[in-house]
Amino acid sequence: MLLPLYQVDAFSDRPFAGNPAAVCPLTEWLPEATMRAIAAENNLAETAFFVPKAGAEGEYEIRWFTPAVEVELCGHATLASAHVLYRHLNFQPEEIVFHSKSGPLRVSRAENGMLTLDFPARPPKPLAQHPDGLVDGLGATPLALLAGPDLVCLFASEAEVRALRPNQARLAEVEFRGIIATAPGTNGIDFVSRFFGPRVGVPEDPVTGSAHTTLVPYWAEQLGKTSLRARQVSARGGELWCELRGERVLMSGHAVTYLKGEIELGELN
Questions:
Q1: Does one domain contain both 190 and 98?
Q2: Cβ within 8 Å of residue 253, ≥6 positions away
Q3: pLDDT at 113
Q4: Residue 207 belongs to what domain range?
């Protein structure tokens, strides 16, 4: 059995930056154990699998796996999947609908070559108490904490966020999917962030679209604006152009193909 495989650098307009995702287009679902094994073998933050949705032209079902677990929402691998459809699979309509465990996710393309994700907003709420292991794990004490699907740690400056050298073993004790460190940006960037997810097998994610469904509502309120430019200041780095639109977050970015090939599997039981 041969399966197509693409590796795409998402939220970047050049190779070797942004967040690499593997994308496996399928005609029908593989056994879950096989998808988990492929994701572990790829050893990227996420591998996306999608299949055409029966009876719905231009719509797909999508699932994402880290090397360790299946996740309910992933931005960069959805962007990468849309890029594969447009760039390599001759998809023509201006909008793609992906059906996921987090509901329908729409991706559209603009004339400037960017792709725009339309995701549900997931605003955070204040959290008074520091979870065990957090300060030791970050090696720094946040100004404040917010709780959403991930734990948001607020810092005063971009320099503090960049300077974090986390203890991943300690951060893995914190009972959230991921730990987001964020601060105001500079030089035209509204806010910066980093994302640590040792509990889901991702020590540091280069650019995390799903985290921005929480960050954008928070920073939109703090800054009094709904259009925001964000930068994730990981080693690879990446930029997102974001907009809060009611209960939805729009995130736009570039994507480039790094490789395409085939996975060779034996007969599946």
A1: no
A2: 10, 11, 12, 18, 79, 114, 115, 207, 238, 239, 240, 241
A3: 86
A4: 125-250
